[in-house]
Amino acid sequence: MSNDNTISRRGLFMNMGILFNGLVATALAVPIVRFVLSSVTRGRANAYLSWVPIGSVAEFPEGETRLATFKNPYVMPSDGKTVDTACWVRRIAGDQFQVFAVNCAHLGCPVRWFPQSGLFMCPCHGGAYYRDGSRASGPPERGLFEYPYKVQDGLVTIQAGELPTPGAPTASLYGKKPPCAA
Amino acid sequence: MRRLITQVGEWFDHRLQLAAPIREAAEHPVPRNTASWWYVFGSAALTVFLLQLVTGILLALIYVPSASEAWSSLQALNHDVALGWFIRAMHGWGSNFMVAIVLIHMVQVFLFGAYKFPRELTWIVGVFLLLMTLGMAFSGQVLRFDQDAYWGLGIGASIASRVPIAGPVIVKLMLGGPIIAGATLSRFFALHVFVIPGMLIGFVCLHLLMVLKLGINEWPMPGRLVKRATYENEYHQLTRTDGAPFVPYAVWKDLFFSAFILLAVAACALYFGPFGPAGRPDPAIIQTAPKPDYFFLWLYALLSLLPPSMETPALLIGPVVVIAALVLLPFLSGEGEKSWRRRPIAVLTILLIAISLGTLTHLSGYTPWSPHMNAWSGDPVPERFLHGRTALERQGALVFQVKQCRNCHSLGEAGGQRGPALDSVAVRLTQDQLIRQVIQGGGNMPAYGKNLSPVETTALVAFLETLHPAGQVPARDAVLGEASERRLSSQP
């Protein structure tokens, strides 16, 4: 038995070997972690928050709510149909719009618009919303998610590259709701 | 010939040196009373897991984990590849069986007190095996990349997003980007095919190793208490005096049950066929009511029945509490009585959980909380509610249908169940109360004030006032009634 305070030549080499492996592992961890987090760190500047057209103003009659589809701005070759997203477009009057995500504010199921009763209804857990997107009844804790929109040269465009969820409703990214939300 | 086989065997074993430890493991003595039909669920779970490995590899020969092609590759498996449908069906039913058998195994272990000293870690590893099995079930449903899978992912993302602060980051990690798309399917493929199965294999080995090292739990006898100081000696005493080699004394029941389960999976696969895929995963098709597979239906029901304010805490804290309780169980009751005959609270807990899960699953079969989207245009107003009515009342019946009241309220047993049935609403509410309820809503009903003209409201309420059983008078305002009586009596 050797003294506790001494270290053998072989023992030192082994410890150095462990240290060396630790250093290499740390160095390799940087690109690995960055790769794993790439879906998070891609950054706002990227294409996925650019403005996408959903149709010309004339396609949306005043006072009515219509379904529109748009192609998600961030597309990968393997995405298939999943980048074709739907949204509900309510033209209040003139250039005043409200563009709602189809995703229920409860758990994201697609809500359907019933013009006769002026309600959006969710088939999953029975959430209901009024025509202006505010909560009418059921489990949702808030109104429908709204996409920021603008009207340019007779074209309605929205900023909608992100799946709206209760934890990250699209509108909150921009600090304010569209002017017509009230 | 026989000599040749023996020689080849010996050649290999001289190099591998596995025969002795395998024989030792197979013939290790187990208490005689554990050779019971109650002790077959663990091995059955392992068998179904092996079936899932084999059928999963076979499916991976054809399946394409790409959002643009997964759905059509599943169609090809179902229709073009010889017996592709059968392999898909085996894998799908195998998954259902595996979840069920793992749960039954867990209940048996719990009721037989097998998690107590010294098998605490075996139980904890088992808890993680259950979580991984559920993870496989969910990720497998995602790989069946159809409408249900697409919207199911959205539900998963909505739940994950509610985690304070980290929510949005978790969602992007889970989806592999800002939306549900190709990267989402690819990462669930990696989880389902590499990550979770790898961990499952490792944990199954640990679980089995501990069963071998610590010995199978003896049949619990009421009154025979587990004590840390003496248990292991008592157990070895038992295997010496009343033990028998696992092979062949006990193993034949495991073999029979495993074969029976495989046969049952195959029978279900043959008879019921594969699961889906349902409609194309096209988010622009919104005419869909997504539903999870059966083992998550209880959760689907729970999420519609919880009060909104309770939901986020329940979703985020609930799983932590449940997992913590399962992991801590062997530390909180690691000693003492094993027999379920002397553990009424354990039995009641199992019954309570089983009844709750069963009830929630049953409810999710007919979703009374969801509006019936087509009731207003599909379900006729029963004739008896229209017969002999005035023009105004019939107009009200029309308003009732057109304004989609029917989606949430049933008449004559047809229509939604979200709100109360209205067959006898006139008995419950007076005219004023009806008007108020229609215009202002309340009690989980939207306000219709802005969507009904005064004429429509009058007609609707007139119709609603006719909805009472024959011979039962409609509700009337007691105060108004008194006033009119007084007026009558004051007349000369």
Write the layout of secondary structure elements.
The complex is a heterodimer of chains A (182) and B (492).
Chain A: H1 9-36, H2 38-41, E1 51-56, E2 65-71, E3 84-93, E4 96-101, E5 112-114, E6 119-121, E7 128-130, E8 135-137, E9 146-147, E10 149-152, E11 155-159
Antiparallel strand pairs in A: 1-11, 2-3, 3-4, 4-9, 5-6, 6-7, 7-8, 10-11
Chain B: H1 2-16, H2 19-26, E1 29-31, H3 41-60, H4 70-79, H5 84-111, H6 120-143, H7 147-160, H8 167-175, H9 182-214, H10 231-242, E2 243-245, H11 246-249, H12 251-272, H13 297-305, H14 308-332, H15 344-366, H16 375-378, H17 391-402, H18 425-428, H19 431-440, H20 454-465, H21 478-490
Antiparallel strand pairs in B: 1-2
H/E series of chain B: HHEHHHHHHHHEHHHHHHHHHHH
Helical content of chain B stands at: 55-70%
What would the average pLDDT of chain A be, to the nearest integer?
Answer: 85
Number of strands of chain A: 11
Within the CATH hierarchy, at the fold level, what is the topology of the largest domain in chain B?
Answer: Cytochrome Bc1 Complex, Chain C
Write down the secondary-structure element order of chain A: HHEEEEEEEEEEE
Beta-strand content of chain B = under 5%
Task: Give start-end ranges of low-pLDDT stretches of chain A.
Answer: 171-182
* Biggest sheet, spatial arrangement of strands of chain B: 1-2
CATH topology of the largest domain in chain A: Rieske Iron-sulfur Protein
CATH architecture designation of the largest domain in chain A: 3-layer Sandwich
Radius of gyration of chain A: 26 Å
Structural class of chain B: mainly alpha
Largest sheet of chain B: 2 strands, antiparallel
Name of the level-1 CATH class of the largest domain in chain A: Mainly Beta
Intertermini distance of chain A: 81 Å
